[in-house]
Specification:
The complex is a heterodimer of chains A (216) and B (313). With 216 residues, chain A is an all-alpha fold. Chain A has 6 helices and no strands. In chain B, helix 5 runs parallel beside helix 8 and helix 6 crosses helix 8. The chains are: A mainly alpha (216), B alpha/beta (313).
């Protein structure tokens, strides 16, 4: 016999994985748009971001309802708590994607800028998102250490690139300064996404072991 | 569609080089975690594996009020408790949970030696109450019972007695004749059971004229009158409506300030709400015991997890 709680948990899971896919695609689209200097995707990214925000509220409502109606415990309770956190994480991904495309809209076109540092970090960040979501899907905490390791790399890259950008600001050179500012902003958003990818890892660890991640 | 599939190894190694290169820029170590905090390569914290969690040492209560040791109990030759070890902390509520027939009530009845009264029942092992083994041949079951009050599933006030006499009955049976003393104890007991305000003008009315919830609190008052050190409660709210149940739960929280409470309940949420420690029993065995917070959030045993989550039982 299926527990009534399981019906609710299945629904929450379904929304969470919808959010995960949408968040990945939205961030990926924002980075591709930055690379190609293409602002035509802004509306799509905005809509995705808004949808993620809407779904976050839906997950939150559903989780509260499940807690109130079924008073879940143990893994069920940990999963519900984690879903509320995960929905926030995916919603933030959408917001950062929108922030990236907004930078392009305000400071672009940026086709003459050196985008290598952003693209390098974005590869890491997208991989982190992918690993985190896979870990969540498979309930596999064996790959979480890799996500944490990658976050360390992102942090280092972020500090290094920001420092370098600040050292080459040229007076009265609007074009170069646009590049530096846009790079600094987008690196910051990517660094935040990387942190949030770690929150996914934290949630997977919490669901599986009941332990808070020791890394923070 | 992702931009990358697997992390590029050359990229990874180049980043590692850069990490070495700019180590002078490394952020200061501000993380609050005390287990593993450095940012150096190779010292990243590892996830605490499930196996590690399972190997955590058995939970132990320091200086228990009551200690059940290797307790076995039989009914007509059938083993009902298979060597229970359980420590009960003073001034705390300990909940016994588990499916029907797992031995919760038998354990409770062994603790105050009521099990002895059942025909063809037998118990073996030790129950230490403040350094006294209550199953020692020299222990007097009557004296043991005086130190422990018991409240049953169904309220059972003495049907022919008034509210006042229900509470005073135990005192009178124990030879207390001082009417003023009895009056004071009845007052204190009814107050202690959160019933005084509701019955103070009706003390002469029959106990059974009260509502079910009030009758149960009257039974608690009757138990309190004997000033027990331990209060045993066998599903005390299963026959009560939610309001009456919540009053009993609030009462338990107050009572534990002065005595030790052991409660048998089938209501998981009640155990989670009222108890400080929870013991899960199954088929006559104690499967898991620990702080209630841990049992309900992170049970260590799969069986506990399955039971409290409603997957069996």
């Amino acid at each position: 016999m299926v527990r009534l709680l399981d019906l609710g948990l299945t629904k929450v899971s379904s929304i969470i994985f919808d959010m995960a896919g949408l968040a990945e695609n939205t961030v990926s689209k924002a980075i591709t748009s930055y690379k190609d200097d293409d602002t035509s995707t802004k509306n799509q990214i905005f809509e995705s971001s808004a949808k993620l925000r809407f779904l976050q509220d839906e997950v939150s409502e559903l989780c509260i309802e499940l807690i109130a109606r079924f008073q879940p415990v143990a893994t069920d309770l940990r999963y519900i708590k984690s879903c509320m956190e995960l929905s926030y994480v995916f919603s933030r991904f959408g917001r950062y994607a929108f922030d990236i495309i907004t930078v392009l809209e305000i400071l672009g076109p940026l086709e003459l800028c050196d985008k290598s540092s952003v693209m390098r970090m974005s590869k890491l960040v997208l991989e982190m998102m992918d690993l985190g979501i896979s870990a969540l899907r498979l309930r596999d905490n064996s790959i979480l250490a890799k996500i944490y390791e990658m976050e360390e790399m992102v942090d280092v890259l972020y500090r290094k690139s920001t420092r370098e950008s600040s050292q080459i600001v040229i007076a009265n050179n609007y074009s170069d300064n646009r590049c530096n500012i846009s790079t600094a902003l987008i690196l910051k958003y990517l660094e935040r996404i990387s942190d949030h990818a770690c929150y996914i890892a934290d949630s997977v660890n919490y669901i599986e072991t009941g332990m808070a991640s020791p890394r923070r | 569609m992702y931009l990358v599939g697997n992390l590029d190894n050359s990229l990874k190694s180049s980043i590692k080089d850069e990490i070495d290169d700019i180590s002078k820029y490394s952020k200061t170590e501000t993380r609050t975690d005390t287990t593993t905090t450095t940012t150096e390569e190779g010292s990243l914290p590892s996830i605490k594996a499930e196996t590690e969690r399972k190997s955590d040492t058995e939970f132990k209560i320091e200086n228990p009020k009551l200690s059940v040791q290797s307790l076995k109990a039989w009914f007509s030759g059938k083993l009902a408790l298979k060597g229970i070890n359980l420590d009960v902390k003073e001034n705390c509520v300990t909940a016994l949970i588990g499916p029907s027939g797992c031995g919760k009530t038998t354990l409770l009845r062994c603790i105050n030696r009521m099990h002895d009264l059942t025909p063809n029942a037998m118990a073996e092992g030790k129950i230490i109450l403040d350094d006294i083994n209550i199953y020692d041949k020299q222990s007097d079951p009557v004296l043991i019972k005086r130190r422990m009050g018991m409240v049953f599933q169904k309220p059972n006030p003495f049907p022919t007695m008034s509210i006042y006499d229900n509470v005073a009955a135990g005192l009178k049976l124990n030879g207390i004749k001082d009417k003023n003393l009895i009056k004071d104890i009845v007052h204190d007991s009814l107050k202690g059971a959160a019933l005084w305000e509701e019955v103070k003008n009706d003390l002469d009315k029959p106990g059974i004229s009260l509502s079910g919830g009030q009758q149960q609190r009257l039974c608690i008052a009757r138990a309190l009158a004997m000033q027990p050190e331990i209060l045993l409660m066998d599903e005390p709210t299963s026959a009560l409506d939610p309001i009456a149940s919540s009053k009993i739960e609030e009462l338990m929280n107050d009572l534990k300030k002065n005595l030790t409470v052991i409660i048998v309940t089938h209501n998981m949420q009640q155990a989670a709400r009222v108890s400080d420690y929870t013991a899960f029993m199954y088929l006559g065995e104690l499967i898991e015991f620990g702080p209630t917070d841990q049992i309900f959030k992170y049970p260590k045993k799969e069986l506990t997890e399955r039971y409290i989550s409603g997957k069996f039982g």
